[in-house]
Amino acid sequence: MVQSKYDISFIILTWNSANYIDQCLASIDEIRQFKVKIYVIDNGSTDETRRLLKNWQAKVHRAELEVISLSTNKGTTVSRNLGIRKAYNNSQYLCILDSDTVINEKAMARLVQTLESDSKIGIVGPAMKGLDGQIQNSGRGIPTLKIKLFKVMPFVTLRHKGEQMEMISKEHEITDVGYLMSACWMMPAILIEKIGLLDENIFYAPEDVEYCLRAWKRGYRVCYDQDALIVHAWQRLSRKKLFSRHNWEHIKGLLYLFRKYNCYFNRPDYVKY
User: Fold this and answer.
1) Could you state, in order of their start, the residue ranges of all structural domains in the chain?
2) Average pLDDT, stretch 5-26?
3) What is the pLDDT of residues 242-260, one digit of tens each?
4) pLDDT of residue 238
5) What pLDDT sits at residue 150?
6) pLDDT for 240 beyond 60
7) Which pLDDT score is estimated for 1?
8) Cα 122–136–232 angle (5° rounding)?
9) DSSP sequence for the chain
């Protein structure tokens, strides 16, 4: 077996992320246990993000950093795939990471340990704590059309029912889930050869649901590890405007997902949780 150049490659997207990217990169650069490469793909930021990234290229200490600057926002899948293509042949593990996260070495080591415990685990994600100290619902059930309709109903009881239908009890250290929010995924790099890149038919979301469904379909498990804990600020710039392009792309992505996996009313049988 050819020895990988890096233990972990981090794939990070930025888009007007000046308020978050410093802390994110600083937390990765503190890792000592693993040899690390960071790929940052900037999706046409118009704030101070690019200047901050340029500064980091000069001051990064332990990790290696490569910045890919795009002139316009190419969306989640196309942009992440640029980093994945560069990383997966020279890395043992890939970590898909949002720019508004703060990680720690203990959590990363735990995620790697979980992957190494079972070759059928394709993707594992940590527990994520918000800035308010609350644990986020980052490992969920598959969102069918039925669930989504419940969640947009004008009645509180129906919206609550839709939210409950996506909830998964996490009583054990490691729990199988339908999908993980892609704010932090750890996966073996070989998974890219097995199931492919992110689906570029989806611009923004739900690329995380689609990829996890594909992993399940190919016989892999998708797992939430509550013994790994990171911070996730949950930057949601795209959701502030109801009729924004991102919200429209999200709706288009959901309709594409429902058609592709026929999950209008029930999750596929091969998804086990």
Assistant:
1) 6-261
2) 97
3) 557 778 898 999 999 999 9
4) 47
5) 80
6) no
7) 47
8) 80
9) -PPPSEEEEEEEEESS-TTTHHHHHHHHHT--SS-EEEEEEEE---SSHHHHHHHHHHH--SSEEEEEEESS---HHHHHHHHHHHHTTSEEEEEEEETTEE--HHHHHHHHHHHHH-TTEEEEEEEEE-TTSPBP--EE----HHHHHHHT-SSHHHHHHHHHHH-----SSEEE-SEE-TTEEEEETHHHHHH-S--TT-SSSSHHHHHHHHHHHTT-EEEEEEEEEEEE----GGGSSTT-HHHHHHHHHHHHHHHHHT-SSS--TT---
Q: Give the tokens for residue 241.
A: 């405007």
Entry pTM: 0.93
Fold of 6-261: Spore Coat Polysaccharide Biosynthesis Protein SpsA; Chain A (3.90.550)
The token pair that represents 62 in the structure block = 């332990």
Is the separation of the CB atoms in 36 and 10 below 8 Å? yes
Which residues have CB under 8 Å from 259's CB, separation 6+?
A: none
